[in-house]
């Protein structure tokens, strides 16, 4: 169980990471926001819109913990994709304001979670139980990974080490929920060790390099400990 001081420290760290993201987004012109991102088939506008809509989705998860409701993150996968597509072409200032508002709403509900006795300890996230007090960590993972996806000035190694750990935990958690994922023991030079499935293949790299492989398929900074080829993994 996360302690109150740790939870509040995580919120402050999320705010710092988001401030850096927002400053970068604020620098984009209407033309620059239409450039390709590191997410295949998506422009920067798609990534920014996704970040705003995913903040709203995680705010719904916080609401579930606070009220006992069971709303899904998104009405449907089709609606999620349609909303991203609809918002991707908006002017840069409109997208910035949208992201700012969605972030502020998430932070307000995240603060309410720690201030509300009796809030649910777990929520249903994509059909699996997830610790409510870890929702800010999940949001932080999205912020730092997608900040790099904007293909601008920020790279994942610039994120706080704890934010990199949030990203690692997030991508591994998602992988653990995919039956097609290979068995992995994911280790890092920072000392992390996480297991997917039967843990058959051990991989190692720096924390941000492992995230880059699991989330985006970049293999340059990751290797197996026995010298075998890296297995194919479903993308985050």
Automatic annotation (TrEMBL):
Name the InterPro entries on file: DinB/YfiT-like, Maleyloyr_isom, MDMPI_metal-binding, SCP2_sterol-bd_dom_sf
Q: Write out the entry's keywords from A to Z.
A: Isomerase, Pyruvate
Domain Mycothiol-dependent maleylpyruvate isomerase metal-binding per the UniProt entry, residue ranges: 15-150
Presence of keyword Isomerase: yes
Check the UniProt entry and state the signal peptide residues, or none: none
Q: Which GO terms describe its molecular function?
A: isomerase activity; metal ion binding
Q: Which Pfam families does UniProt cross-reference here?
A: MDMPI_N
Record carries keyword tRNA-binding: no
| Gene3D superfamilies noted in UniProt | dinb family like domain
> How is this protein named in the record?
Maleylpyruvate isomerase
Native source organism of the sequence: Raineyella antarctica
